[in-house]
Amino acid sequence: MKKILFPTDFSDVSKNAFIYALKLADAIDAEIITLHVYQLDSPAYLDVSIYLQEIYEYEELTNFENYKDEVPVLRKMAEANNLSHIKISNVLLQGNLVDEVIKISKKENIDFIVLGTKGVTHLREIFLGTIATKIMNESKAIVLAIPEKCEYKPIEKILFTTKYNIIDIEALQKVQALARVFHSHIDCLNVKPPHTVYKDDFVVDFKNVFKDQNVDFHSILSNDVEGVILNFIEQNNINMIAIHVKHRSFFQKLFDVSLSKKLAFHSNIPILSIP
């Protein structure tokens, strides 16, 4: 059975993303491991050493009580979506969230990490939130990031941004494996400046590898790379965008366009990160 790791802080953002975790688990016959990580706050003053143990014990108890109250909420969400058959286990840990996510991902051989993301201002600095960014960079698992205002919709159309480099074929194969499960169509899009010769464009190879798959290939000449991608998403009713982690810095440029486009994009589209 495949495994999905679901880091949560039990916020509305996380609960919203949990719907995607449930739907994914149902589609690929996976179990879900929810993970809540907390950190103990050290007092800002010094002369309290004799009370430190009591303070830490109180904080641990408080976190445990909150955890105990919130876990059943996730189970009720599964029942409300007719997905109560999905196996769900729960883990509570103290430590650094990113470190613990990476550790448990390796230990449990996690296939997917699904997490909610928050933050629609200063996006260049906190692309999907710094936590999601670090997890994407460090994890060997596929990461599905769900923006806070994203409402669940069936994944019918996936956009895969690429420059048609050979290194992207394996990443696209992983996207295609997921697309088959959801019966999704994939659009591969390469936006390149006009009057430029590309010697590393292997679009013919891509078409040969995926010739019998539900995949279309597009190449558009434009200096407005980010604008073309955003327009493509809107005009083609894209439900999810997939990126190869090697191109994440390029993908961040999407958030350098106008604020209105940034907010519209960031609030509606789940992002699949392929390691």
What does this protein structure show overall?
With 275 residues, the chain is an alpha/beta fold. Helix content is 43%, strand content 23%. It has two domains: 2-147, Rossmann fold (3-Layer(aba) Sandwich), CATH 3.40.50; 157-269, Rossmann fold (3-Layer(aba) Sandwich). It is built from nine helices and ten strands. Strands 3-2-1-4-5-10-9-6-7-8 form a ten-stranded mixed sheet, with helices on both faces. Helix 6 (203-209) links the parallel strand 7 (185-192) and strand 8. The longest helix has 32 residues, at 49-80. Residues 1-147 form the UspA domain. It holds the Pfam family Usp. This is Universal stress protein. It comes from Flavobacterium taihuense.
Describe how the helices and strands are arranged:
Elements: E1 2-7, H1 12-28, E2 30-38, H2 49-80, E3 88-94, H3 97-107, E4 112-117, H4 130-138, E5 142-147, E6 157-161, H5 167-182, E7 185-192, H6 203-209, E8 215-221, H7 225-235, E9 240-244, H8 248-251, H9 259-268, E10 271-274
Parallel strand pairs: 1-2, 1-4, 2-3, 4-5, 6-7, 6-9, 7-8, 9-10
Antiparallel strand pairs: 5-10
Helix pairs in contact: 3-4
